[in-house]
Amino acid sequence: MANLIGTLVQHCGHESRVVNDAVRSLTVASEFKPSIALLDIGLPGMNGFELARQLRLVPGLEAIKLVALTGYSDEDHRRRATEAGFDVHVVKPIALAQLQSVLNDDRTA
Question: Which pLDDT score is estimated for 106?
Answer without folding.
Answer: 53
